[in-house]
Design a protein that fits this description.
Layout: E1 21-27, E2 30-31, E3 35-37, H1 49-53, E4 56-58, E5 61-65, E6 71-74, H2 76-89, H3 97-110, E7 123-132, E8 145-154, E9 165-169, H4 186-190, H5 193-201, E10 206-208, E11 225-229, E12 235-238, H6 247-259, E13 264-267, E14 279-284, E15 288-297, E16 300-303, H7 313-326, E17 337-339
Parallel strand pairs: 9-10, 9-15, 12-13
Antiparallel strand pairs: 1-2, 1-3, 1-8, 4-7, 5-6, 5-7, 6-17, 7-8, 11-12, 11-14, 14-15, 15-16
The structure holds pyridoxal-5'-phosphate (PLP) and 2-OXO-4-methylpentanoic acid.
Length: 341
Protein backbone atom coordinates (compact mmCIF):
# COMPACT_ATOMS: atom_id res chain seq x y z
CA UNK A 1 0.00 0.00 0.00
CA UNK A 2 1.42 3.34 -1.02
CA UNK A 3 1.18 6.22 1.46
CA UNK A 4 -0.46 9.49 0.36
CA UNK A 5 1.88 12.26 -0.51
CA UNK A 6 1.61 14.59 2.51
CA UNK A 7 4.36 16.76 3.91
CA UNK A 8 3.96 14.79 7.15
CA UNK A 9 6.53 16.74 9.17
CA UNK A 10 4.77 20.05 8.52
CA UNK A 11 1.15 19.04 9.01
CA UNK A 12 -0.85 21.20 11.38
CA UNK A 13 -3.91 20.12 13.34
CA UNK A 14 -6.37 20.40 10.46
CA UNK A 15 -8.91 18.45 8.43
CA UNK A 16 -7.87 16.56 5.33
CA UNK A 17 -10.59 14.48 3.77
CA UNK A 18 -9.67 10.80 3.51
CA UNK A 19 -11.24 8.09 1.39
CA UNK A 20 -13.50 6.27 3.83
CA UNK A 21 -15.66 6.99 6.86
CA UNK A 22 -17.97 4.79 8.93
CA UNK A 23 -21.66 5.46 9.36
CA UNK A 24 -24.43 3.75 11.31
CA UNK A 25 -28.01 5.00 11.63
CA UNK A 26 -30.34 4.64 14.60
CA UNK A 27 -34.01 4.34 13.63
CA UNK A 28 -37.06 2.72 15.23
CA UNK A 29 -35.09 2.04 18.39
CA UNK A 30 -32.13 0.16 16.85
CA UNK A 31 -28.74 0.75 15.21
CA UNK A 32 -28.39 -0.60 11.68
CA UNK A 33 -25.41 -2.81 10.78
CA UNK A 34 -23.22 0.17 9.75
CA UNK A 35 -20.92 0.53 6.75
CA UNK A 36 -17.84 2.24 5.38
CA UNK A 37 -18.80 4.86 2.82
CA UNK A 38 -17.00 7.26 0.48
CA UNK A 39 -19.32 10.30 0.63
CA UNK A 40 -18.07 12.87 3.14
CA UNK A 41 -21.22 15.01 2.92
CA UNK A 42 -24.22 14.69 5.23
CA UNK A 43 -27.75 15.59 4.18
CA UNK A 44 -30.31 16.11 6.92
CA UNK A 45 -33.56 17.86 7.80
CA UNK A 46 -33.36 21.61 8.36
CA UNK A 47 -34.97 20.84 11.70
CA UNK A 48 -32.55 18.08 12.80
CA UNK A 49 -32.01 17.88 16.57
CA UNK A 50 -28.31 18.63 16.18
CA UNK A 51 -28.99 21.85 14.27
CA UNK A 52 -31.70 23.15 16.60
CA UNK A 53 -30.62 22.07 20.08
CA UNK A 54 -26.99 20.96 19.64
CA UNK A 55 -27.64 17.31 20.43
CA UNK A 56 -24.18 16.11 19.46
CA UNK A 57 -21.27 14.39 21.18
CA UNK A 58 -17.86 13.26 20.00
CA UNK A 59 -14.64 11.47 20.82
CA UNK A 60 -11.04 11.83 19.73
CA UNK A 61 -8.27 9.25 19.52
CA UNK A 62 -5.24 8.62 17.34
CA UNK A 63 -3.70 5.85 15.26
CA UNK A 64 0.08 5.53 15.26
CA UNK A 65 2.59 3.67 13.13
CA UNK A 66 4.88 1.88 15.54
CA UNK A 67 8.61 1.41 15.22
CA UNK A 68 8.09 -2.15 13.92
CA UNK A 69 5.57 -1.05 11.28
CA UNK A 70 2.22 -1.90 12.89
CA UNK A 71 -0.71 0.50 12.97
CA UNK A 72 -2.17 0.78 16.46
CA UNK A 73 -4.65 2.82 18.48
CA UNK A 74 -4.27 3.78 22.12
CA UNK A 75 -6.88 2.65 24.67
CA UNK A 76 -9.89 2.94 22.30
CA UNK A 77 -11.99 1.02 24.84
CA UNK A 78 -11.91 4.09 27.08
CA UNK A 79 -13.18 6.30 24.24
CA UNK A 80 -16.00 3.80 23.68
CA UNK A 81 -16.93 3.96 27.36
CA UNK A 82 -16.75 7.76 27.52
CA UNK A 83 -18.96 8.04 24.44
CA UNK A 84 -21.55 5.90 26.23
CA UNK A 85 -21.38 8.25 29.25
CA UNK A 86 -21.90 11.20 26.90
CA UNK A 87 -24.88 9.42 25.28
CA UNK A 88 -26.54 8.91 28.64
CA UNK A 89 -26.17 12.54 29.67
CA UNK A 90 -27.59 13.89 26.38
CA UNK A 91 -30.41 11.31 26.13
CA UNK A 92 -28.91 9.63 23.08
CA UNK A 93 -28.85 5.88 22.37
CA UNK A 94 -25.57 4.22 23.38
CA UNK A 95 -23.37 2.90 20.58
CA UNK A 96 -22.18 -0.50 21.83
CA UNK A 97 -18.53 -0.72 22.88
CA UNK A 98 -17.65 -3.75 20.71
CA UNK A 99 -19.19 -2.04 17.69
CA UNK A 100 -17.28 1.15 18.42
CA UNK A 101 -13.98 -0.78 18.51
CA UNK A 102 -14.85 -2.61 15.31
CA UNK A 103 -15.77 0.65 13.55
CA UNK A 104 -12.51 2.35 14.62
CA UNK A 105 -10.55 -0.63 13.28
CA UNK A 106 -12.43 -0.58 9.99
CA UNK A 107 -11.98 3.17 9.42
CA UNK A 108 -8.27 3.12 10.18
CA UNK A 109 -7.63 0.02 8.05
CA UNK A 110 -9.59 1.52 5.14
CA UNK A 111 -7.53 4.72 5.34
CA UNK A 112 -4.14 3.05 5.82
CA UNK A 113 -2.61 5.28 3.13
CA UNK A 114 -3.30 8.29 5.37
CA UNK A 115 -1.67 6.91 8.52
CA UNK A 116 1.53 8.93 8.90
CA UNK A 117 4.75 6.90 8.84
CA UNK A 118 6.72 6.12 12.00
CA UNK A 119 8.98 8.98 13.04
CA UNK A 120 7.22 11.57 10.85
CA UNK A 121 5.89 13.52 13.84
CA UNK A 122 2.32 13.18 12.52
CA UNK A 123 -0.50 10.81 13.52
CA UNK A 124 -3.95 9.88 12.26
CA UNK A 125 -6.61 11.65 14.32
CA UNK A 126 -9.84 9.66 14.58
CA UNK A 127 -13.08 11.50 15.25
CA UNK A 128 -16.11 9.40 16.28
CA UNK A 129 -19.30 11.44 16.74
CA UNK A 130 -23.03 11.10 17.08
CA UNK A 131 -25.88 13.51 16.54
CA UNK A 132 -29.66 13.78 16.50
CA UNK A 133 -30.69 13.74 12.85
CA UNK A 134 -34.51 13.61 12.92
CA UNK A 135 -36.63 16.80 13.11
CA UNK A 136 -37.10 18.27 16.58
CA UNK A 137 -38.93 21.52 17.26
CA UNK A 138 -40.22 21.22 20.83
CA UNK A 139 -37.22 20.84 23.14
CA UNK A 140 -36.75 17.07 23.43
CA UNK A 141 -34.33 14.37 22.27
CA UNK A 142 -34.40 13.38 18.58
CA UNK A 143 -35.86 10.00 17.64
CA UNK A 144 -33.20 9.16 15.04
CA UNK A 145 -29.40 9.42 15.29
CA UNK A 146 -26.33 9.00 13.18
CA UNK A 147 -22.99 7.69 14.47
CA UNK A 148 -19.99 8.36 12.28
CA UNK A 149 -16.22 8.13 12.36
CA UNK A 150 -13.88 9.98 10.07
CA UNK A 151 -10.13 10.38 10.32
CA UNK A 152 -7.58 12.95 9.25
CA UNK A 153 -3.79 13.04 9.39
CA UNK A 154 -2.60 15.67 11.88
CA UNK A 155 0.51 17.32 13.25
CA UNK A 156 0.84 19.15 16.58
CA UNK A 157 -2.26 20.80 18.09
CA UNK A 158 -0.45 24.01 19.03
CA UNK A 159 1.06 26.15 16.29
CA UNK A 160 4.81 25.83 16.08
CA UNK A 161 4.93 22.31 17.57
CA UNK A 162 5.97 21.51 21.10
CA UNK A 163 7.16 24.63 22.88
CA UNK A 164 6.19 26.20 26.21
CA UNK A 165 2.77 27.86 25.98
CA UNK A 166 1.50 31.04 27.55
CA UNK A 167 -2.04 30.76 28.86
CA UNK A 168 -4.44 33.10 30.62
CA UNK A 169 -6.88 32.54 33.42
CA UNK A 170 -10.24 33.09 31.79
CA UNK A 171 -13.16 34.99 33.28
CA UNK A 172 -15.51 32.82 31.21
CA UNK A 173 -16.81 29.54 32.57
CA UNK A 174 -16.41 26.26 30.70
CA UNK A 175 -18.68 24.08 32.79
CA UNK A 176 -21.44 24.54 35.34
CA UNK A 177 -21.77 22.52 38.54
CA UNK A 178 -24.03 19.59 37.61
CA UNK A 179 -23.70 20.56 33.94
CA UNK A 180 -21.95 18.75 31.08
CA UNK A 181 -18.26 19.50 31.69
CA UNK A 182 -17.51 15.81 32.37
CA UNK A 183 -18.80 14.58 28.99
CA UNK A 184 -17.68 15.31 25.46
CA UNK A 185 -20.65 17.31 24.23
CA UNK A 186 -20.27 19.69 21.29
CA UNK A 187 -22.06 22.35 23.32
CA UNK A 188 -19.09 22.58 25.74
CA UNK A 189 -16.88 23.58 22.83
CA UNK A 190 -19.37 25.97 21.23
CA UNK A 191 -19.51 27.99 24.41
CA UNK A 192 -15.70 28.08 24.65
CA UNK A 193 -15.25 29.61 21.19
CA UNK A 194 -15.65 33.23 22.25
CA UNK A 195 -13.22 32.65 25.13
CA UNK A 196 -10.55 31.07 22.91
CA UNK A 197 -10.90 33.67 20.15
CA UNK A 198 -10.54 36.37 22.81
CA UNK A 199 -7.47 34.67 24.32
CA UNK A 200 -5.83 34.31 20.90
CA UNK A 201 -6.50 37.99 20.08
CA UNK A 202 -4.74 38.89 23.31
CA UNK A 203 -1.74 36.75 22.33
CA UNK A 204 -2.39 33.72 24.56
CA UNK A 205 -2.24 30.12 23.39
CA UNK A 206 -5.06 28.81 25.61
CA UNK A 207 -7.36 29.51 28.53
CA UNK A 208 -7.20 28.08 32.00
CA UNK A 209 -10.75 27.70 33.30
CA UNK A 210 -11.46 27.84 37.02
CA UNK A 211 -14.38 26.12 38.73
CA UNK A 212 -17.39 28.28 38.04
CA UNK A 213 -18.88 27.93 41.55
CA UNK A 214 -16.00 29.45 43.54
CA UNK A 215 -13.46 30.64 40.94
CA UNK A 216 -10.70 29.38 43.20
CA UNK A 217 -9.86 25.96 41.76
CA UNK A 218 -8.07 24.96 38.55
CA UNK A 219 -10.22 22.98 36.14
CA UNK A 220 -8.83 22.49 32.62
CA UNK A 221 -8.39 24.22 29.27
CA UNK A 222 -10.86 24.10 26.38
CA UNK A 223 -9.36 20.85 25.10
CA UNK A 224 -6.94 19.36 27.63
CA UNK A 225 -6.47 18.52 31.34
CA UNK A 226 -3.61 19.91 33.46
CA UNK A 227 -0.72 18.22 35.12
CA UNK A 228 1.64 20.06 37.47
CA UNK A 229 4.98 19.04 38.88
CA UNK A 230 5.96 20.20 42.38
CA UNK A 231 9.47 21.35 43.26
CA UNK A 232 10.02 17.95 44.90
CA UNK A 233 8.96 16.08 41.73
CA UNK A 234 5.43 15.05 42.65
CA UNK A 235 2.83 14.94 39.89
CA UNK A 236 -0.34 16.85 40.79
CA UNK A 237 -3.46 16.81 38.63
CA UNK A 238 -6.82 18.48 39.29
CA UNK A 239 -9.72 16.32 40.38
CA UNK A 240 -13.15 17.78 39.70
CA UNK A 241 -16.58 16.48 38.71
CA UNK A 242 -16.81 19.15 36.01
CA UNK A 243 -13.72 18.33 33.93
CA UNK A 244 -13.46 15.81 31.11
CA UNK A 245 -11.88 12.56 32.35
CA UNK A 246 -8.92 12.69 29.96
CA UNK A 247 -7.63 9.32 28.83
CA UNK A 248 -4.17 10.85 28.39
CA UNK A 249 -4.23 12.17 31.96
CA UNK A 250 -5.34 8.83 33.36
CA UNK A 251 -2.55 7.15 31.37
CA UNK A 252 0.06 9.66 32.54
CA UNK A 253 -0.89 8.93 36.16
CA UNK A 254 -0.04 5.26 35.55
CA UNK A 255 3.14 6.19 33.66
CA UNK A 256 4.24 8.49 36.50
CA UNK A 257 3.63 5.90 39.21
CA UNK A 258 4.58 2.68 37.47
CA UNK A 259 7.23 3.64 34.94
CA UNK A 260 8.87 6.61 36.63
CA UNK A 261 8.27 5.83 40.31
CA UNK A 262 6.81 9.28 40.97
CA UNK A 263 4.27 10.17 43.61
CA UNK A 264 0.95 11.35 42.16
CA UNK A 265 -1.74 13.46 43.79
CA UNK A 266 -5.14 13.64 42.13
CA UNK A 267 -6.87 16.35 44.10
CA UNK A 268 -8.40 19.81 44.06
CA UNK A 269 -5.77 22.31 42.92
CA UNK A 270 -6.17 25.91 44.04
CA UNK A 271 -5.27 28.88 41.86
CA UNK A 272 -3.24 30.15 44.82
CA UNK A 273 -0.91 27.13 44.52
CA UNK A 274 0.06 27.78 40.91
CA UNK A 275 3.06 29.93 41.79
CA UNK A 276 4.56 27.05 43.81
CA UNK A 277 4.74 24.48 41.00
CA UNK A 278 7.94 23.80 39.05
CA UNK A 279 6.35 22.61 35.80
CA UNK A 280 2.98 22.60 34.11
CA UNK A 281 1.61 20.74 31.09
CA UNK A 282 -1.59 20.27 29.10
CA UNK A 283 -2.52 16.69 28.35
CA UNK A 284 -4.94 15.25 25.85
CA UNK A 285 -5.11 13.26 22.64
CA UNK A 286 -4.59 16.35 20.50
CA UNK A 287 -2.31 18.21 22.95
CA UNK A 288 -0.33 15.03 23.86
CA UNK A 289 1.64 16.67 26.69
CA UNK A 290 2.31 20.29 25.85
CA UNK A 291 4.41 22.30 28.30
CA UNK A 292 3.10 25.55 29.78
CA UNK A 293 5.76 28.14 30.58
CA UNK A 294 3.62 31.00 31.85
CA UNK A 295 0.14 31.60 33.23
CA UNK A 296 -1.23 35.14 33.28
CA UNK A 297 -3.83 35.97 35.91
CA UNK A 298 -5.31 39.38 35.04
CA UNK A 299 -1.91 40.85 34.26
CA UNK A 300 -0.02 39.03 36.99
CA UNK A 301 2.49 36.58 35.51
CA UNK A 302 3.17 33.19 37.02
CA UNK A 303 6.36 31.93 35.38
CA UNK A 304 7.32 28.30 35.93
CA UNK A 305 11.00 27.63 36.65
CA UNK A 306 11.03 25.27 33.62
CA UNK A 307 11.06 28.46 31.52
CA UNK A 308 9.95 29.43 28.03
CA UNK A 309 12.46 27.52 25.92
CA UNK A 310 12.01 23.86 26.77
CA UNK A 311 9.87 21.27 28.52
CA UNK A 312 10.60 20.81 32.21
CA UNK A 313 12.60 17.66 33.01
CA UNK A 314 9.76 15.65 34.59
CA UNK A 315 7.26 16.70 31.90
CA UNK A 316 9.82 15.53 29.34
CA UNK A 317 10.18 12.12 31.00
CA UNK A 318 6.40 11.75 31.11
CA UNK A 319 6.12 12.79 27.46
CA UNK A 320 8.86 10.46 26.28
CA UNK A 321 7.51 7.49 28.20
CA UNK A 322 3.92 8.00 27.04
CA UNK A 323 4.82 8.54 23.39
CA UNK A 324 7.31 5.65 23.66
CA UNK A 325 4.42 3.39 24.67
CA UNK A 326 2.23 4.74 21.87
CA UNK A 327 4.93 4.36 19.22
CA UNK A 328 5.90 0.89 20.37
CA UNK A 329 9.38 1.40 21.74
CA UNK A 330 8.29 1.01 25.37
CA UNK A 331 6.34 -1.99 26.62
CA UNK A 332 2.71 -1.00 27.19
CA UNK A 333 0.57 -2.02 30.13
CA UNK A 334 -1.79 -4.90 29.28
CA UNK A 335 -4.65 -3.78 27.02
CA UNK A 336 -3.41 -0.28 26.20
CA UNK A 337 -2.42 -0.92 22.60
CA UNK A 338 -5.01 -2.07 20.09
CA UNK A 339 -3.31 -3.45 16.97
CA UNK A 340 -5.14 -2.65 13.74
CA UNK A 341 -2.70 -4.36 11.43
N1 LIG B 1 -10.39 18.05 28.24
C1 LIG B 1 -11.14 18.43 27.20
C2 LIG B 1 -12.12 19.52 27.40
C3 LIG B 1 -10.98 17.79 25.95
O1 LIG B 1 -11.70 18.16 24.90
C4 LIG B 1 -10.02 16.76 25.83
C5 LIG B 1 -9.87 16.05 24.56
O2 LIG B 1 -10.40 15.01 24.33
C6 LIG B 1 -9.28 16.40 26.94
C7 LIG B 1 -9.48 17.07 28.13
C8 LIG B 1 -8.27 15.31 26.85
O3 LIG B 1 -8.89 14.06 26.85
P1 LIG B 1 -8.19 12.81 26.18
O4 LIG B 1 -6.88 12.65 26.85
O5 LIG B 1 -9.10 11.68 26.47
O6 LIG B 1 -8.06 13.12 24.74
C1 LIG C 1 -8.87 15.67 21.59
O1 LIG C 1 -7.80 15.88 22.16
O2 LIG C 1 -9.11 14.61 20.99
C2 LIG C 1 -9.93 16.66 21.59
O3 LIG C 1 -11.03 16.32 21.28
C3 LIG C 1 -9.63 18.04 21.94
C4 LIG C 1 -10.01 19.01 20.89
C5 LIG C 1 -9.69 20.35 21.43
C6 LIG C 1 -9.33 18.78 19.59
Amino acid sequence: MEKKNFDWANLGFGYHETEKRYVSNYKNGAWDEGALISDSQIVMSECAGVLQYAQTIFEGLKAYTTEDGHIVTFRPDLNAERLIDSCERLEMPAFPKERFLDAVTKVVAANEAYVPPYGSGATLYIRPYMFGISPVIGVKPAEEYQFRIFCTPVGPYFKGGIHPLTIKISDFDRAAPNGTGHIKAGLNYAMSLHAIVTAHKEGFDENMYLDSATKTKVEETGGANFIFITKDNKVVTPKSPTILPSITRRSLVTVAKEYLGLEVEEREVYKEELKDFAECGLCGTAAVLSPVGKIVDHGEEICFPSGMTQMGPITKKLYETLTGIQMGHRKAPEGWIHVIQ
